[in-house]
Amino acid sequence: MPMMDGPQIEAFLAAEFPQVSGYTVERVDDAGVTLRLAVSDRHLRPGGTVSGPTMFELADLAMYAAVLSRIGPVALAVTTSANIDFMRKPPAGRDLVADCRLLKLGRVLAVGDALIRAEGHDGVVARAAMTYSIPPKP
Q1: For 81, what's the count of Cα atoms within 13 Å in the CB-facing half-sphere?
Q2: What is the C-alpha to C-alpha distance for residues 116 and 18, in angstroms, rounded to an integer?
Q3: pLDDT above 80 for 2
Q4: pLDDT (tens digit, 9 = 90+) per residue, 9-23?
Q5: What is the rounded (10 degree) CA torsion for 47, 64, 100, 134?
Q6: CA-CA distance, 74 to 133, in Å (whole number)?
Q7: What phi, psi does 8 have (nearest 5°)?
Q8: Which DSSP letter does residue 121 get?
Q9: Of 25, 38, 59, 116, which residue is least crowded by CB atoms under 10 Å?
Q10: Closest alpha carbon to 124 in 97, 102, 92, 94
Q11: For residue 99, which of 42, 44, 27 has the smallest C-alpha distance?
Q12: Kind and range of the H or E element at 23?
């Protein structure tokens, strides 16, 4: 059962991480979250495609949102492991959508994966596997 919904996650991110913007939580359920990035010119690399660091940020933020949805507003949950495969170039001018699912949620670690697609395209543009460390409760 999710502890935080989409608007709560967005409000938490705005308060704790104002440097990240352009993201919308579209889905929160027991399996994970869907996070959308409104792609703009600042996300593009030469050649007119979305940059790798932008896609990594989307995957990492989707995993963070999935963890928060289950444990509540814990700012110090952090990435401990990340692996991303870039599979195809996403087209410019389309939002990116990350579907993140939690594969395991333990007391101190959360493991999940994220599949990133360009809006309107079925093909996966990137796949990420991530582990988060959950701090002990005070």
Answers
A1: 8
A2: 23
A3: no
A4: 999 999 999 998 899
A5: 140
A6: 11
A7: -65, -40
A8: -
A9: 38
A10: 97
A11: 27
A12: strand 23-28
Does the CA dihedral 33-39-43-48 come out positive or negative?
Answer: positive
Q: Which two tokens stand for residue 115?
A: 């599949």
Q: What is the three-class DSSP state of 131?
A: strand
Q: Kindly list the structural domains of the chain, giving each domain's residue range(s) and its CATH number in brackets, ordered by start.
A: 6-133 (3.10.129.10)
pLDDT in tens, 32-87: 999 999 998 888 888 888 999 999 999 999 999 999 999 999 999 999 999 999 99
Alpha helices (runs of H) in 2-119, residue ranges in sequence order: 6-16, 52-71
What average pLDDT does this structure show over 97-102?
A: 98
Question: Of the candidates 107, 114, 99, 116, which has an alpha carbon nearest to the alpha carbon of residue 39?
Answer: 116
Give residue 85's identity as a one-letter amino acid code: D
pLDDT tens for each residue of 65-76: 999 999 999 999
Contacts of 125 (CB under 8 A, 6+ apart): 50, 55, 86, 87, 88, 89, 90, 96, 116, 117, 118
Residue type, 88: R
